[in-house]
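Can anyone check this?
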Amino acid sequence: PLPEMKLGELHALLLHAGYCTARTVERLPNGWNAELAVPNRDVVAALYTLVRRWVALAQPQESSVRNLLSAMLNGHIEVFEREAHGG
């Protein structure tokens, strides 16, 4: 199920499904790095709804949601992954 996916798996799913597009792609010694973007407002709305459902299902504490959103908006992937998996 989607809520149990690792962040890298979710990125791949969103990219292959067309919900994200790659702006830049860079080959690294240990894999790949890509900057992803959301292609249009309809996709933004769909992703927003999906995240709201996840938050409602998980019923996390308010501080946890705040930390998760802050990490996501500021590009702190490690913090986002940690908060997404319960701190």
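Reply from J.R.: I decoded it. The chain has a mean pLDDT of 78.
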